[in-house]
Write a structure and sequence with these properties.
Number of strands: 7
Mean pLDDT: 80
Helix content: 40-55%
Low-confidence stretches: 168-189, 206-220
Number of helices: 9
Strand content: 5-15%
Oligomer: single chain
Shape: globular
Structural class: alpha/beta
């Protein structure tokens, strides 16, 4: 992912619009993160309607008010606006922590062609190695909200056990990713034990020992 932007200037959507213009700054910001490329335009009504949802989605995954630790996620606005004024206006609807390419940067249009963007809004989700996780995650974000990130994280094989949304702690038991495998393993072992008991009954002629093994059900 870093290779896509290592020779570019990324701008922060903060008051001062600070620039990330060195390789070191860009590497530190993008390395080992899932990148969301948000292609949109202020003149697009669908983009205007989607922007508040995206804003909330990103905040719930990266704002410390909602999470104990920010997700390994970067939002980069690729403006396809007709003027710099339009782009500046639309950026006000996006999180202050997102990045964007300057209006005069021709790389905006190159990225549009590179990712075959045919409709707006489009959110291209990239793995840290620049491969595409999903060509347009707009519908996924609208339907699933922040849960999308878990799907992307697993698909990108980025297991970060330190990341948890606040609601994950409410009445939820902590389960390992291996739990389904363990349950299957234990189920197989139970079947083996049952077969072994049946054989024991055969040898014992249904006597007391077998009854002792199977009898005395749990008080629960």
């Amino acid at each position: 992912m870093v290779d896509l932007f290592v020779e570019r200037v990324l701008v922060k959507n903060n008051k001062d619009q600070d620039e990330l213009d060195t390789e070191r700054e860009i590497v530190l910001r993008l390395q080992n993160r899932i990148l969301m490329l948000f292609f949109a335009s202020a003149a697009c009504e669908s983009c205007q309607r989607f922007a508040p949802t995206l804003n909330d989605f990103f905040k719930r995954l990266t704002d410390e008010f909602y999470v104990d630790r920010a997700a390994q996620l970067v939002l980069l606005y690729i403006g396809l606006d007709q003027s710099e004024e339009q782009q500046d206006s639309f950026l006000k609807e996006l999180p202050k922590t997102c990045l964007f390419l300057a209006y005069e940067d021709p790389y905006r249009r190159q990225l549009e062609a590179m990712f075959n963007v045919e409709e707006l809004p489009t959110v291209v989700v990239l793995r840290p190695d620049c491969s595409i996780l999903t060509p347009n995650a707009v519908e996924e974000i609208l339907c699933l909200g922040p849960r999308c990130y878990r799907n992307w994280q697993e698909a990108a094989e980025m297991i970060d056990r330190s990341f948890m949304m606040s609601e994950d702690f409410e009445g939820t038991s902590m389960c390992s990713l291996r739990d389904p495998v363990r349950r299957l393993k234990y189920k197989v072992e139970d079947e083996k034990q049952k077969k072994s008991k049946k054989k024991s009954r055969g040898w014992l002629g249904g006597g007391g020992e077998a009854a002792e093994v199977d009898g005395g059900g749990s008080p629960w």
